[in-house]
Each structure stands twice: as structure tokens, then as C-alpha cells.
Write a structure and sequence with these properties.
- The protein contains three helices and no strands.
- By secondary structure, the protein is an all-alpha fold.
- Helix 1 crosses helix 2 and helix 1 crosses helix 3.
Length: 82
């Protein structure tokens, strides 16, 4: 697999992963300031991270086994689409 194909597989795997976790409960954490304190809006409510931020965070925290399983799904989907 060349570099371009590997990048496409990685992007596709990440997209599949994001779709997979999108509706999971408890997947968003609160944003933290530079001192590690929870950031709050003007009303004092904690500010949750955006779903895209949660996807990136959870993908980077996922085990290599988990990421590899989504890469396999991406390869199968790309082959089916070809």
C-alpha cells in the first residue's frame, strides 16, 4: 500500500469510527483551560467539547487493536466502492 492509499485508509477509518461513536452516551468531556480547570460559559454552565473534538480525542486514545479493526472496515468499504 502506497502513502496515498494509507492516508485514504486512515481518513476512512477515522470517518467510520466517528460515525460509530457519534451517538454514544458520555462521549463528550468538558473543555479545560490552560490550568486544567473546566471552562464555563457566561451563565456558568460547563462547556462540552465539540463532537469532532471528542472523535479526535477518542481516536488518539483508542488502542491500536481498535484502530486496526476500523482500518480493516475502511479497506473493505474502499474495495467495495472501487
Amino acid at each position: 500500500m502506497n502513502r496515498a492509499e494509507a492516508n485514504m485508509v486512515e481518513r476512512s477509518a477515522f470517518a467510520i469510527y466517528c460515525e460509530f461513536i457519534r451517538h454514544g452516551s458520555g462521549s463528550l468531556k468538558y473543555l479545560l483551560d490552560h490550568e486544567g480547570n473546566i471552562m464555563r460559559d457566561r451563565t456558568g454552565e460547563p462547556i462540552p467539547e465539540a463532537p469532532e473534538q471528542a472523535c479526535r480525542r477518542r481516536w488518539s486514545e483508542a488502542t491500536e487493536t481498535t484502530r486496526e479493526s476500523f482500518r480493516r472496515e475502511a479497506i473493505a468499504a474502499l474495495r467495495a466502492a472501487a
